[in-house]
């Protein structure tokens, strides 16, 4: 058996998966990456990867995704549909969280834009040193905008982006948000969090829904 003669063929076969991934990257993904990197810098370094693959539904977030749909604009509800593209970008990962950015391109504009998500700023105090109980119910003392979500996903049926941030590895403290696409942009519709650590206490709420649209 002539092993050296087989090496070129084996190397070619080994390279095929990466070539296929590169071929699957859609037009527009490079521009979306450039927008996110320029705006977010080291927060969207994509773990140093030069070519982030397009991820399937079972890829656990370590890749980009592209979603397409059409919608009726509020300013012309009887007019033609507007085509939209949403690029969900893998910006990086830590020990137990994945950072995502989203870039939106609509048919009525040639310029893709980085989506900024409204999130509440929460005021609360702990009642003990273990941080297992709050001294009082939390409250919102303002809102901020962020272009990075954590462990995010997009539901194509409801056109909703959700996030779920684990505050530490075991996930006992966390926050979660929902943003729904309406008339060309995403609006915060729900935000829930659990700031308490340790074993669940039956006398403490499991979580706090601090914002819900319409309430």
Structure description:
The protein is of the alpha+beta class. The chain has one domain. It has two helices and twelve strands. Strands 1, 2, 3, 4 and 7 form a five-stranded antiparallel beta sheet that branches. β2 and β3 form a beta hairpin. The protein is globular. It starts with a helix and ends with a strand. 18% of the residues are buried.
Could you name the key traits of this structure?
single chain, 215 residues, alpha+beta, five-stranded antiparallel beta sheet, 2 helices, 16% helix, globular
Briefly say what this structure is.
With 215 residues, the protein is an alpha+beta fold.
How confident overall, as mean pLDDT?
A: 86
Give the % helix: 10-25%
Low-confidence stretches: 1-23
* Global shape: globular
Q: Taking Cα atoms only, what radius of gyration do you get, to the nearest Å? A: 21 Å
Number of helices, where a helix is a run of at least 4 consecutive DSSP H or I residues: 2
How many structural domains are formed by the residues?
1
Largest sheet: 5 strands, antiparallel
Head-to-tail CA distance between termini: 74 Å
Could you tell me the number of beta strands?
12
Structural class: alpha+beta
Secondary-structure element pattern, one letter each: HHEEEEEEEEEEEE
Question: Proportion of β residues?
Answer: 35-45%
């Amino acid at each position: 058996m002539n092993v050296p003669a087989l090496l070129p063929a084996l190397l070619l076969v080994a390279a095929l998966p990466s070539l296929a991934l590169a071929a699957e990257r859609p037009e527009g993904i490079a521009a979306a990456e450039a927008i996110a990197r320029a705006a977010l810098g080291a927060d969207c370094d994509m773990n140093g990867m030069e070519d982030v693959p397009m991820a399937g539904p079972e890829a656990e977030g370590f890749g980009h995704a592209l979603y397409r749909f059409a919608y009726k604009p509020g300013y012309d509800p009887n007019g033609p549909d507007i085509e939209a593209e949403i690029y969900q970008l893998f910006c990086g990962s830590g020990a137990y969280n994945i950072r995502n950015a989203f870039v939106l391109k609509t048919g009525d504009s040639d310029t893709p834009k980085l989506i900024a998500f409204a999130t509440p700023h929460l005021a609360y105090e702990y009642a003990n040193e273990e941080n297992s109980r709050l001294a009082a119910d939390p409250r919102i003392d303002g809102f901020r905008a962020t272009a990075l979500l954590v462990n995010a996903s997009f539901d194509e049926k409801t056109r909703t982006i959700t996030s779920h941030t684990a505050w530490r590895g075991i996930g006992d403290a966390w926050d979660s948000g929902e943003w729904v696409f309406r008339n060309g942009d995403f609006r915060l519709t729900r935000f829930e969090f659990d700031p308490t650590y340790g074993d669940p206490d039956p006398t403490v709420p499991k979580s706090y829904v601090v914002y819900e649209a319409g309430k």
